[in-house]
Amino acid sequence: MNGAALLGLSVDELGARFRAGDVSAAAIADATLARIADVDADTHAFLTVDRSGLEESARALDEKRARGEPLGPLAGVPIALKDALVTRGLRTTAASRILEHYVPPYDATVVERLRAADALLPGKTNMDELAMGSSTEHSAFGPTRNPWDLTRSPGGSSGGSAVAVAARLTPASLGSDTGGSIRQPAAFSGVVGVKPTYGRVSRYGLVAFASSLDQVGPFATTVLGAARILGVIAGHDPRDATSLEAPVADYVAACGESVRGLRLGVPDEYFAEGLSADVEASVRAAIGWLEQAGATVRRVSLPHTRHAVATYYVLATAEASSNLARLDGVRYGLRVPASRIHDMYGTTRDAGFGAEVKRRILLGTFVLSAGYYDAYYKKAEAVRALIRRDFEHAFADVDVVVGPTAPTTAFGLGERTSDPLAMYMSDVYTLPASLAGIPALSVPVSPAPSGLPVGLQVVAPWLEEARLFRVAAAVEAHAPPRVPPRHGGATG
Amino acid sequence: MKPPSFTRAEVDHLATLAALTLGDGEADAMAKELAKIVAYVQELASVDTADVEAERPLAAAWREDVLLPGLSRDELLAAAPRTAEGGFSVPAFVSTTTATGVSRRGQ
């Protein structure tokens, strides 16, 4: 089996081959590096490839296997990391000039957990700067391209992590999702992406954007792969004060459970104006598959959905304006010298931040400023409570909510960069679950007639991630993982 | 609510609050974009929120303070743009003429 074919395997298939001794970690590492060298000049999923770290951990893992020691649940599986997750000794930029040369002295908790599970970590993936964006075009280091059509965006902000998986550079990756930054690129790129419950996965070591929303989650080529990784990274971490102490369910087992008798809610508001006909057709067909498999379907209403974009852009920018105050040229990152400290902050942040980040910091500063706080920030917190209540009402009658992940298929590069509001609208269906703090996932369904991927979003009540996997596995049975013809083409 | 507009002076004030220095063209562009975005988010005013109290999704959990091994000073300073005598070095932030008599200037 050649290298590209090796990387066409899923998390579970590749892990099983390594465990069985069919392939060495060194060979997997070589294949990964070769594949990145072959494909990623076109797609630009990676910002930093850690060749030496990857080769060293592969060697150590091969020795561990040779000694007959017990292997971790992700042994031999390459997993790419969004560059918002800090990695000890490996540059972590969050795709921002202000962190271009930052080498963190510690690993994020999720990175520690992947290492402890014997995963291989080939490097750091591209993203919108500081996770602010929906297209990966706001990266300070150039956009990531969608392997299904290189003239299109892969979505964002975790576009590099989505494309690493879609183009089969790695069978899985980690991203972060604040308002849709895992689910929307998963839908645009044709892979599985999961945003867990707020607090389910530790954010210790995640470059903070909006702390009441940020959550780390997996991308994978298969539902089972995503379930296995979530099982590894989920769980309490005393270093994150918002981390939940709840037990972690068996997500892998959930992938094998039938959807018979499961009650699906289809929100009217997710099939309203703005939804493209192609996306609607694919999503409705997938809901039909679930019905055939024994699920029941009923309409539900989430009436405050239409306020989610405004609510999100008030709350997230307010939190960002506060969080990003730490990027000031003092303790780490860029410094542009000036003779007075306030001038140094200004010149550093002017040179270090791109336009979208500045726009959001200014908006966040505005909504928190004296005289406007009640009208914007406090009001948005109240609307957020109504959005959460919408889901509580819906979940009184249904087990999960299903609908489109995004209103369109992947849009063209440059199409929305000049209109921030148009860009924000691509998150209209993912924002409500983020604001409610509940888990949601995107799984590929039948592609649009153009061939571009379409995602079905599944939303579950608080801490009910297992239901997401149960539904997604049933969808995947009808829409098996697809590989982009040129840039994912695993031949032979 | 009145339709929002941002004067150049208002944008400059926000930039000062946010410790951002904006170039001329940038500040003018931001004024226009902020006005558009704020006009959009003003729709929240139309939502009836009378019977909801703003709630946080989760309260931060408290735990006991426990002494654990952490990063060394050298490890932490390694990422700093400028250090001096085992600390972060910054430009002047107090005037040499203040009553405290502090006269040290850094850069």
Structural features:
heterodimer, A: 492 residues, alpha/beta, eleven-stranded mixed sheet, B: 107 residues, mainly alpha, two-stranded antiparallel ribbon, 2 strands, disordered C terminus
Number of helices of chain B: 3
Q: End-to-end distance of chain A, in Å?
A: 7 Å
Number of strands of chain B: 2
So what's the overall shape of chain A? globular
Q: How far apart are the first and last residues' alpha carbons of chain B, in Å?
A: 46 Å
- Largest interface chains and counts: A-B, 73 and 52 residues
Helix content of chain A: 25-40%
Beta content of chain A: 5-15%
What features would you describe in this structure?
Chain A has 492 residues and is α/β, with parallel strands linked by helices. Helices cover 39% and strands 11% of the residues of chain A. Chain A contains 17 helices and eleven strands. Chain A has helices spanning 3-7, 11-20, 25-43, 51-66, 109-116, 159-166, 183-189, 223-233, 251-254, 277-292, 308-323, 341-352, 355-368, 374-394, 420-424, 431-436, 465-476, and strands spanning 46-49, 79-82, 123-125, 172-177, 192-195, 215-220, 263-267, 296-300, 400-404, 440-444, 455-459. Chain A has an eleven-stranded mixed beta sheet, sandwiched between helices. The radius of gyration of chain A is 21 Å and the shape is globular. Chain A starts with a helix and ends in a 16-residue tail after the last helix. The model of chain A has no long low-confidence stretch (mean pLDDT 96). Chain B is mostly helical and 107 residues long. In chain B, 31% of the residues lie in helices and 4% in strands. In chain B, strand 1 and strand 2 (87-88) form a beta hairpin. In chain B, helix 1 crosses helix 2. The radius of gyration of chain B is 23 Å and the shape is flat. The interface between A and B is large, with 73 and 52 residues.
